[in-house]
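Marked as duplicate of an earlier ticket. Keeping the data here for the record.
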Amino acid sequence: MTENFFQFEHDGLVFDVAESGPADGEAVVLLHGFPEAGSSWSNMTPSLAAGGCRVLAPDQRGYSPGARPPAQGDYALDRLVADVLSLADNAGLDRFHLVGHDWGGAVAWALASKHPDRLRTLAVLSTPHPKALGRSLLRSDQVLRSSYVGLFRLPVVSERLLLAFDGRVLEQGLRRAGLSAAKAREYTARMSEPGALTAALNWYRANTSSLAIGDVDVPTLYIWSTGDAALGRRAAELTADYVKGPYRFEVLDGVSHWIPEEAPDEAAALLLSFWRT
């Protein structure tokens, strides 16, 4: 598979994007999570491209070296959504399939709720609808699963802790959550670049409420995995309450939070099946 790379500018920032698949294929935009990058989709994109899709996988705000503004407010959800729309505009996309994982999933939910006219479909891996996540905090173990978020929102302290011992704290944390050793090393190295970890953590610090994200009425696929240490079943099941359009819920048994890296073939097959129905 031939993969090309290009950049686009938005909001005074420069974003890096990997592109693969036929130029005239149905466009798919893939949004990564924390502390990943567009490369988190690298094991899925060949299947999607072979299925006839034009695949765009950006390094998002804070992850592209040329897109790391210093202010915490620069990472508010509306800015993150605007980045995706700007990518679509720069790539000449009127409507497109949107796929998000982890924080990329939160951006995807927000974009689908506010700009449904731009999407053919929505697919989210791991991340429940934010309002479902909020409800699950009251009557499940989700509050324990989400306890790390409080640490991530502490400025300076969390950076020093996660990068302690040459990043081994972050790397081992990713390994314990189910990520492969190779990917844990890759993401830790990226987060060790000057300003990178603070930029990534600013997603947590700038976005503390789910109230702004409404219901979704575009065709939606939600994929959750039983081995996800961060996101539990209760929130996954409640997500259906916030999708008013056609909805499909799929469960991957025994897979960790890192679906794009750990189960790329299964996830790609589900996506292609969903788009063809």
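See parent ticket for discussion. Strands lie at 3-10, 13-20, 26-31, 53-58, 96-101, 119-125, 220-227, 247-256.
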